[in-house]
Hints:
Order of helices and strands: HEEHEEHEEHEEEE
Number of helices: 4
Shape: globular
Organism: Streptomyces inhibens
Distance between the termini: 79 Å
Strand content: 25-35%
Structural class: alpha+beta
Number of domains: 2
Helix content: 25-40%
Oligomer: single chain
Protein name: DUF2771 domain-containing protein
Amino acid sequence: MTAALISWGKGRRAAAAIGAVSLGLITLSACEKPTALATVTVGSTTVTAEATPGCDGDGEVLSKKAIAACITKKGGKTITVHPGEKVRVAVDPEVAKSGWIVIGGGPVMREPSKETYRSFDADTLFMQQNPQTGQTTYTKNVTLQVAELGDGDGPKTMWHFTLKQKD
């Protein structure tokens, strides 16, 4: 009688294991490829974000209409910055292979980076220059844009963060 109970218990465990594996495979097959992340760190505070909705070309260059919409988007995760602090921006290695840039109150990089990590002076990111007069002003809040570049035709993916300057 005991042998029959042990045998029946092994069968239930085997059936449960098969069911768990099957459920796991179904769940994995329903998953989408994870999107690349961008990270901004100021001091000991870090925020990480997936691509901004509508600004992920899924490996392809964004359309001109999408680029125009993404460039004007505001917001994203917020981080507070004190004057004089360093703002560190990091991207996934796949993004670094394509090349990427950062835009604050204006362009802050002369050429795309192939590194996974860059550091910027906060004051540079909050600086805005009037294109007509050339006068430089500083803003209290800025949308920091991180863009993965395509093959010369524009960005493939964009991330947005809000930087708030603390007095």
